[in-house]
Amino acid sequence: MATFWRPEPEMWDTLREAVPGILADQREDGRFGTAPWTCLDQHRIFHLAAAWSLENSPWFHDDEVLAAIVRGGDALIGAQDNEGMWTFLKKDYSEWGQIYMPWTYSRWIRAYMLARSGMDGEARARWNAALELGFEGISKTCLSHVHNIPTHHAMSLYCAGMVFERQDWKTQAEEFIHEVVAAQSPYGWWTENVGPVVSYNYVYSDAMGVYYKLSGDGRVIEALERAARFHRNYTYPDGSAVETVDERNAYNSEVRPGNPGFSHTATGRGYLARQHRLFLEAGGKFDVDYAAHMLLYAGDGEIEEMEDDRDGRTYAMGGDALIVSRKPWFLSLSAYCCPLDENRFRQDRQNFVSIFHESTGLIVGGGNTKLQPLWSTFSVGDTSLMRHTPGDADPDFGPFEGLAHIPDRAEIRADEACPGIDLHYGADVGRVTLVPRGDSQLLLILESSGISESGMEAHVTLIPHLREALRSSTGERAELQTDIVEWTGADGAWFEHAGWRLSLPAGARLVWPALPHNAYTKGGEAGVGQARLVLALPFGEDRSRYELSLDILQE
User: Fold this and answer.
1) Are 207 and 250 in contact (CB under 8 A)?
2) If I label 259, which of 6, 356, 424, 447 is the partner at 20 to 30 A Cα–Cα?
3) CB atoms within 10 A of CB 367
4) Does residue 300 register a pLDDT over 80?
């Protein structure tokens, strides 16, 4: 097994294959991409700059590539407003105001750093004026608090300080990056409200990895090491990120390869080696942006191998989160709780249990959203009181009188044989217990000690596979891409999907699709691919416990 990591040859292949298409895509006005044009389309100048500047590239110091870079940057100049900002326009034509787009300024200044030696005086003068305008604005307005976007801005401001010999910008960026390091949890993550932001944690480590490559500032290495250990623990065996503790993003089944930040420690390189192997085995192809970043900013060196979990492994973040991994099961529990937040991107902390099996992938869980109480592990009251109207760009996110769908507090029961969690909703308590029984069966026990008259209900959120049918013990069948499901349970009933089978007990109902609020569309609209299949289990005077059998189907 490899004990040394460096960027794979496939990254060079990606860059070489991408350049002709990028050149062909550029229009006479220097713009790339399809209508509507956005500043993000111009990220291709960074990819071209990588190809122009890397000595092993067929386009090393190529005049055609250099001319395309200049035209691409000039298109950004033409779209700037008087303060150096662009309109944040998305491909769905929604507008989100004026912005110093961090991802674009970052790539533009780094493209300039790589290619300016070949540019003529007039082009350099145009770019100097436009970039200095933008970075003056970034310096004055964009580094006010620790967050993933300001962290990326700080990295690019440091680069701008190098390019323009602005020690004040370099110092400002250094000081901000050190604030980011100080704000990191001892467990290796950054928060933007309460608990980790798993997906955006990659943004922090990416920015700090590039900053380290540019600056050699050793004060960030320990933070990169902690971040790598966090992601090693909070990545499923198939390479997808564990969503249970994420306050920003729901589950995404794709393998997340990594970023340059992981490459500067042995722990992180071990993570990259595994992630890249899984990515390539799944038929993945590195995109050109990733390849350019890794070829330019990644380190190389010895790796720390990732441990095998056949004999069992637990990992706890204090009393707030627990991983129990015993192949083929991987169980994740979160006890992070917080009040509802009006910020559309801070999700309701409502879903606290994830169940993964190596033969099926993630089965139960999927993360959090807003305005969808059926995604809550438990709810107390009338779930119809909370719903999202697609197209409403400024909804009321609650709370709503008559419904509690997030707990006041939670306690994890850290028993490796049968881990669980207790969730408190005022005087009502919901309890979840997970009991693995060998490699192909797990008992999922849901209990209520509710005393209110509003009624408590448990919800088991299940990950859909849209191309696979849903079947029941009664012979019912549904196609998730087209059908609506409202099945009711019975004694001894079950349903199966995507390689697993789950009990459908009397009193239960199976609901599809339970759509989320999509924070990344202006009106919150979500497609069926973002929905959850939900088993709803009501409690009452005659029913305070459900014991469900989750069985892995043998081929």
Assistant:
1) no
2) 356
3) 29
4) yes
pTM of the complete model beyond 0.85? yes
Name the residue among 474, 478, 446 with its Cα closest to residue 460.
446
pLDDT digits (tens, 9 = 90+) for 460-472: 999 999 999 999 9
My answer on whether omega of the bond before 513 falls inside 30° of 0, hence cis, is yes
* Beta strands 470-472; 477-478: pairing state: antiparallel
Please count the CA atoms within 13 angstroms of the CA of 320 that sit on its side-chain side.
13
Question: Measured between alpha carbons, how far apart are the two ends of the chain, in Å?
Answer: 30
At 214, the amino acid letter reads L
- The alpha-helical segments, DSSP class H, found in 355-511 are none
Work out the angle between the directed axes of helices 63-79 and 44-53 (0-180°, nearest 10): 150
The number of residues in the chain equals 555
C-alpha Rg value of the chain to the nearest Å:
25
- Which residues on adjacent β-strands are paired with residue 86? 99
Pairing of strands 4-5, 470-472: unpaired
Is residue 45 a contact partner of residue 108, using CB atoms and an 8 Å limit?
Answer: yes
- Which tokens belong to 247? 């306050």
Strand partners, 446: 432, 546
Q: Is the peptide bond before 186 cis (omega within 30 degrees of 0)?
A: no
Q: What is the pLDDT of residues 173-193, one digit of tens each?
A: 999 999 999 999 999 999 999
Q: Are the C-beta atoms of 537 and 546 separated by less than 8 Å?
A: yes
Rounded Cα–Cα distance for residues 238 and 256 (Å): 10
Measure the CA–CA gap between 146 and 198, rounded to whole angstroms: 16
